[in-house]
Amino acid sequence: MRNTEKFGLVSLPIFIILYLAFTIQVHVTLADNYVPTENILLSCGGPPVTTDTDGRKWTTDVGSKYLSATGNSKTSKAATQDPSVPKVPYLNARVFYKNFTYSIPIVAGRKFVRLYFNPASYAGLNPSDGIFSVTVGSYTLLKNFSAAQTAKAMNCAFLVKEYSINVDGATLNISFAPSTKAPKAYAFVNGIEIVSMPDIYGSTDGTLEIVGQKSPFYIGNSTALENIYRLNVGGYPISPSHDTGLYRRWEDDLLYIYGAADGVSYSGYPNMMIQYPPSMPTYVAPLDVYSSARSMEPNAQINVNYNLNWVFSVDSGFSYLVRLHFCEIRSIITRINQVVFDIFLYNQTAESQMDVIGWAGVKLGAAGKNGVPVYKDYVVIIPNGSPQQDMWLELHPNTVEKPTHYDVILNGVEIFKVNDSNGNLAGLNPISDVTNPIRDRPPSGDGKIKSRKAIIIGGVSCGIVLVLVIGFFLIAASHRWHGKDSSARVVSLGWHQELERGFTKNLCRHFSFAEINTATKNFDEALLLGVGGFGKVYKGEIDGGATKVAMKRGNPQSDQGVHEFQTEIEMLSKLRHHHLVSLIGYCEENCEMILVYDYMSHGTLREHLYKTQKPPLPWKRRLEICIGAARGLHYLHTGAKYTIIHRDVKTTNILLDENWVAKVSDFGLSKLSPTLDNTHVTTVVKGSFGYMDPEYFLLQQLTTKSDVYSFGVVLFEILCARPVLDPTLPEEEVSLAEWAAHCHKIGILDQIIDPHLKGKIAPECFKRFAKTAVRCVADQGIDRPSMDEVLWNLEFSVLLQDSANESHKGIGSKIHIEEVPFVPNKWKDDLDASPTFDGHRESTC
Ligand SMILES: *[C@@H]1O[C@H](CO)[C@@H](O)[C@H](O)[C@H]1NC(C)=O
Ligand SMILES: *[C@@H]1O[C@H](CO)[C@@H](O)[C@H](O)[C@H]1NC(C)=O
Ligand SMILES: *[C@@H]1O[C@H](CO)[C@@H](O)[C@H](O)[C@H]1NC(C)=O
Ligand SMILES: *[C@@H]1O[C@H](CO)[C@@H](O)[C@H](O)[C@H]1NC(C)=O
Ligand SMILES: *[C@@H]1O[C@H](CO)[C@@H](O)[C@H](O)[C@H]1NC(C)=O
Ligand SMILES: *[C@@H]1O[C@H](CO)[C@@H](O)[C@H](O)[C@H]1NC(C)=O
């Protein structure tokens, strides 16, 4: 059932961590995974056996029985290797100058065929000459396909194409044919994956209906499908080895949400028993998909006035199978007619009065209840038109049925292209969209029109790297954990969700000065939120009060001038991340420079630390804030196409939203760096004193490690709750970073921490946290950890805190996190004597 051997990275430390994770589990039923007969991973032109970042083993195609005429092909290593592209299977490729067929013996039946492409230069060839077609039996999967052009249009470094094909015979033939139209054309592929699959996407479960036509549609053995989107809505990405044995990759949905009104996401909802209906195989979708969801805000008045929207770019002239996954995971929603909503696809009504509890009842053959996963399939026909069109998925509360809550819910989406009558699945190569895609919401449903920014992404799924680190293990680990003897899976981390996303396109809204004036009531001083280097920040409301925003009004006399204004727009409009503050738009009119952001109701982190009337933040919350901010920075450093150095990391640039989610802000000083850590940008020194990397200050060489230094100072500031520079103190104490590092060295750091935290930090957690902070403020960048490591250590600190709390929790007693006894002497123990849980000790702390 479970395959330990596949996960080479499972080791004792991880075992222990998963064990800890299990002790803080949520209640989910165990899902049985599918066990594929065939599970073939071919690394084309690669080394004999390699393991990818997901722990799956690839074997080379060199000398394999699958190749016939190798003379027509050549193996080659990518001439350049983008550091964000995983080596397996993308480093090596097989290049074909003539038609070439892989013949893979299999058992007849339906298979997932996944093709992996990294459009680099191979064997001295120009990537843009890689134009070819791929066929399997009577199906054309790709035609006149340019991986380079597709990847460029999508801002991806590499691509994975997934098909589902029923194979009658005993051989699966995959044929590559270089284009006959282009004289220098060649074909290539980096990896081929074949996984047998059950027939879960066919018409077996009743007839499918075409949206807007009420006519039936049949998907059977002769239909081939191409998966183009697969999203874990409101949740984290799921890597193939964490799927249900089908090795599908689930992305999160953030990039596809249309507009700033992205509702509320519920992730890993606790205390909810998730129970699949008996008629539904548990491998249809993983529990992680059903245990996270997105719904609307708690305000019914706002909800009736908008739709929760996602936009998917699809190829014209094809039919699409759209599968929506639902599971009501909110404990207050238990009965029918509490949440009822309408579903629109491609501007047509796909479903009116969707009631997830009601549908669960149908599937159970009993009274509906929450915690029951269900799904619904729809077929959408996209007529001919421009090469790609947008398919909108819109959910709107149904008011006709007068449900008790005006709300909607969605847990997952899968979209498949269906082969046309010629057996073709290939569309035209997408073209980079250089225009600024500011568009209006579609006028469907009874929602009012609101102008929103959109994200347009090409129709192929971008490979997402899921690096194996421990983190968001709770849900993922617990339901796969089956007693001591069972195989523990290495669980992927949510914060890698943005890796390899690349920049999304510029999606900034333009405001008129009049709109800004209305929103801020003529820059009413009563709405003033603060004053920064750039100018004053006001609170405002746009879209008729539906959205609260913060408006930063540039001060023409400010030394942070036009350049910073433009940098901020440039940077933020291309980036989107849960832990970066979102720029909604800007106004550049009447010599005014105004930036409009999402409003962060809890303000800056600083104002919760010291010199404040606000209640002190509990330790656990501080840790979560640190992790959030670290994720934001980690994303800047590695998640986008280019490395971005923030340059001004400090507690006033870490903002907190109404749920205390930390968001990194203020990109006015940010710099793009050509590659990762090993190079630097030489630049005029800017930043804030007290946080500034001494190496950068001396050498004027900026690297991501400069941000790590500043972040280390932030960690100490959070721990000690004092200003980073306090000239009123004795000389050796003025600089927090130096003083804290000194105190750590002589073992008295616990004496200078925030008095509110005394006795509330678990000793192991404190050790880990302090050591991380100390390493961040090392004099030389080379001695500092990367944000990746920092994040890992912070995650680990939380785990240590939680496990300390757990171990103090007797049966039936409830010990609050703040009540863990404090044992100061233990901290002074030799830190290195502590057991290594992570196998990272040398390189991390
Ligand atoms: C479809 O294929 C499967 C396996 O190849 C077979 O068992 C099933 O009978 C086929 N269905 C139809 C309708 O031909
Ligand atoms: C093939 O693709 C290239 C690049 O997208 C395009 O310029 C060309 O027109 C296409 N040719 C055909 C026959 O579709
Ligand atoms: C696959 O290719 C082999 C050799 O090229 C051929 O003999 C065989 O008939 C093909 N099988 C199918 C199902 O097309
Ligand atoms: C190569 O394959 C393509 C597409 O399948 C076909 O049109 C072409 O005739 C083939 N060329 C040769 C030389 O077999
Ligand atoms: C898909 O292709 C198969 C085989 O070429 C064909 O029989 C079938 O009708 C096609 N499906 C659709 C929906 O056109
Ligand atoms: C759906 O509505 C959007 C927004 O008004 C519009 O841009 C799009 O063209 C519409 N799509 C179709 C197929 O009518």
Quick summary:
By secondary structure, the chain is α+β, with helices and mostly antiparallel strands. Helix content is 19%, strand content 25%.
What labels would you give this structure?
single chain; 845 residues; alpha+beta; Jelly Rolls; Phosphorylase Kinase, domain 1; 11-stranded mixed beta sheet; 6-stranded mixed beta sheet; 16 helices; 41 strands; disordered N terminus; binds 2-acetamido-2-deoxy-beta-D-glucopyranose; transferase; nucleotide-binding
At CATH level 2, the architecture of the largest domain is: Sandwich
Q: Compute the CA-based radius of gyration.
A: 27 Å
CATH topology of the largest domain: Jelly Rolls
How would you sum up the major sheet?
11 strands, mixed
Provide the CATH top-level class of the largest domain: Mainly Beta
Beta-strand share of residues: 25-35%
Query: Care to count the β-strands?
Result: 41
CATH H level of the largest domain: which superfamily?
A: Galactose-binding lectin
Number of domains: 4
Question: What percent of the residues sit in helical stretches (DSSP H or I)?
Answer: 10-25%
Total helical segments: 16
Structural class: alpha+beta
- The parts where pLDDT drops under 50 for at least 5 residues are 1-30, 434-506, 674-684, 809-845
Query: Which term fits the overall shape?
Result: globular
Distance between the ends: 38 Å
Would you mind describing this structure in some detail?
- The chain is α+β, with helices and mostly antiparallel strands and 845 residues long.
- It has four domains: 14-29 and 207-440, Jelly Rolls, CATH 2.60.120.430; 39-196, Sandwich (Jelly Rolls); 497-598, Phosphorylase Kinase, domain 1; 608-832, Transferase(Phosphotransferase) domain 1 (Transferase(Phosphotransferase), domain 1, Orthogonal Bundle), CATH 1.10.510.
- The strands form eleven sheets. Strands 1, 2, 3, 7, 10, 13, 16, 17, 21, 24 and 27 form an eleven-stranded mixed beta sheet that branches.
- One 2-acetamido-2-deoxy-beta-D-glucopyranose is lined by residues 68, 101, 103, 137, 169, 171, 173.
- Residues 99, 133, 135, 177 line the site of one 2-acetamido-2-deoxy-beta-D-glucopyranose.
